[in-house]
Amino acid sequence: MNLVRQFDEQSITQAVIGRLAACDDPRFARIMTSLVSHLHDFVRDVTLTESEWSAAIQFLTDVGKTCTDKRQEFILLSDTLGVSVLVITLNHPADEGSVESTVLGPYYWQGAPELPRGSNLARGVKGEPAFYSGRVLSTDGRPLENALLDIWSGDGEGNYDMQIPGETAMKARGRIRTDAEGRYWFRSIRPTFYPVPTDGPVGRMLRKMGSHPYRPGHLHIIVSAPGHLPVTTHLFVAGSRYLDSDAVFGMKESLVAQFNRHPAGVGPDGVQLETPFYTVSYDFRLRPAAAAAPAGPEREQLATGS
Length: 306
Ligand SMILES: [Fe+2]
Prior knowledge:
Helices cover 26% and strands 20% of the residues.
């Protein structure tokens, strides 16, 4: 048998894909086959030079080295290349009655304290007060009791707690559960626009692209309820700068919320405020988990693994 041991710039692709012949995981084999095909096509398409290839390896090395337990530069890279939103959009179709999903972002911090409804999540946090309220419902309109809202945001100047030098405590974070009527309410601040971190390799990439790093003002929320698919989403501040050019492509019109401004006075919680404040109302709808899992092992894994 005449074995082919040497490959040219075309046959190399099939040779690499051929190494998957003994792979016993069809999904993994499919993903790797496509990845290798596109990667090789990309290299051929731009006729990648050795120095460009070396720069790419150095860039990815820098991305890895920039990650810490509080900073995830790979998520930021995925976000700014639109991959995060693309994956989310493929897996969470917008037309099924559920609140739309958007990016998790790099600032999620697991284990925020569970607080009573009405709590102020933003004690000691800079920013204009905002009172959030609404309901969590099933897509059939049924109120969902004991649904969990895992909430986080930056402060009124656009800084997340983990970005503030010397700040070791969680700020502007908390988890709130709904009551028997599916209602939630809490106090925080009105978030403002902010730049994604630009002091690392992703920042260098954005500058080279000539792209700005800003995200419009938003509050992050993961909404979950028993028997329903959880949704990772935002509430965007209506009228915020950069709503039309979100650096991570996460903006969705259905997630834009009106922040109604009120003069200083008694807030919805009965407490006197010395400054103007905002009220926001938004209902979240979740799909029942059973209805959301079409046949097929891949989709089942997605449904239970999130
Ligand atoms: Fe954010």
